[in-house]
Amino acid sequence: MTIAGFITKNALRNRRRALLSVGSVAVSLFLLVTLMTLVRELTIPPEDIGASLRLVVRNKVSLAQPLPWKQITQLDKIPGVMAVTPFTFFGGNYKDLKVTSFAQFAVDPVRFTNVFVENRSSKEQIEAWIKNKAGCLVGADTMRRYDMKIGDTLKLTGTFYPCDLELKIEGTYKGSVDDRTVFFHHKYLDELSGDLGTVGTWWVRVASAEVVPEVRKQINQTFENTSASVSAETERSFQMSFVSMWGNIKVLIESISSVVVFTLMLVTVSTMSMAIRERFRELAILKAIGFRRREIFAFILAESFGLAALGGVIGIGGAALFWGLLDVQKLSNGFLVYFEVVPRTMARAAVVAAVLGVVSAIGPSLSVAQTSVVEGLKTLD
Predict the structure, then answer these.
(1) Distance between CA 250 and CA 42 in Å, rounded?
(2) How large is the greatest C-alpha to C-alpha distance in the chain, in angstroms?
(3) Which residue in 75, 130, 228, 328 could disulfide with 339, CB within 3.0 to 4.6 Å?
(4) Backbone region of residue 333 per phi and psi (left: phi > 0; alpha: psi in -120 to 50; beta: other values)
(5) What are phi and psi of 6, to 5 degrees?
(6) Per-residue model confidence (pLDDT) at position 299
């Protein structure tokens, strides 16, 4: 019998226990990978390729406070600014949905296409949208999810605004991080709501990443002493401000992950201790016929590491496959755009599995090392 065969036979001696050990590691690591992926999705929002060149300008007092429309002329004159568009959240409900999975924003169609240059849509559809004041541009994901078609009427019931929208779908777009949003004419919202002078925020495209800090500074200084002071921030900072509203959710989820790892360690250590305790006599015989302590430790380590590694492969690989095939956006009702198990997360979980395999072997190995051959032969006699 080879050494590898000897280790494998010992590991599978009690197949039920071995199966439960591998299963517990697999389930725990599946949960750990899921939690780590959730933390990543909640705390690191995805970005478009053009996000590094965009600034969001909001009211300095509060995001809920509107900004005057007349600011646009001054924003256009700031050096380094390539394009500006109003960006006002409507927040309507679609059909009978209490929570609508896609956002709706009022924009200037011409200016919008110059700010969000990565959105892919046909020239004909953009032109039709620009011409029709009651038209809208709908993300490809929303079109697919709700079985919408170009030419359909999209009705939205107002929640923040005292008006409802009846829009005609003139086109669709894709290529952004979140292909779900609906964009429509700001003038249409102004007329229906009776508010012809304010916007929610301004979105600005800057000439290059190098001038972003200077443009941001200039925007803040331009409106510093006005009745509507602004705060200009990068798109990433703007996204992260929404994440901060959840409180310290990262600490909460990481605490749960730590409990999962600690519990898993207790299970694996106790399982290996039980398995080795039942073989004290055999291990004493190995010591009697000349096997040294480090060789016996290597046998135990290989057995422990092998079971942990097998459970790790099943748990980590299963998590990547499961979340890769599942439509998380639909399952979460649009709350999560992506739920991607990235290689870094898988690597961190693999390190946890490896550490478990090593730690689980230390206690039983010390017990074997401290037991003499005579005491070992008396075991289970």
Answers:
(1) 8
(2) 95
(3) 328
(4) left
(5) -65, -45
(6) 67
Question: How long, in residues, is the chain?
Answer: 381
For 162, residues 6+ apart whose C-beta sits below 8 A from its C-beta are 193
Contact 315, 30 (CB under 8 A): yes
- pTM as predicted: 0.68
Alpha carbons 352 and 262: distance in angstroms, whole number: 11
Name the residue ranges covered by the structural domains of the chain.
3-46+247-378, 61-228
Q: pLDDT tens for residues 108-155?
A: 999 998 888 777 888 899 999 999 999 999 998 888 888 899 999 999
Side-chain half-sphere of 158: how many Cα atoms within 13 Å?
12
CA 32 to chain centre: 14
CA 101 remoteness from chain centre = 17
DSSP per-residue codes, 345-369: HHHHHHHHHHHHHHHHHHHHHHHHH
**pLDDT at residue 381, as a whole number:** 45
- DSSP class of residue 198 equals E
CB 106 within 8 A of CB 184: yes
Pairing of strands 165-173, 93-94: unpaired
83: its two tokens: 């394009």
Q: What pLDDT is attached to residue 132?
A: 93
State the SS3 of 42-111. Answer: HHCCCCCCCHHHEEEEEECCCCCCCEECCHHHHHHHCCCEEEEEEEEECCCEECCCCCCCCCEEEECHHH
Cα distance between residue 115 and residue 138, in whole Å: 17
Residue ranges of the chain whose pLDDT lies below 50: 381
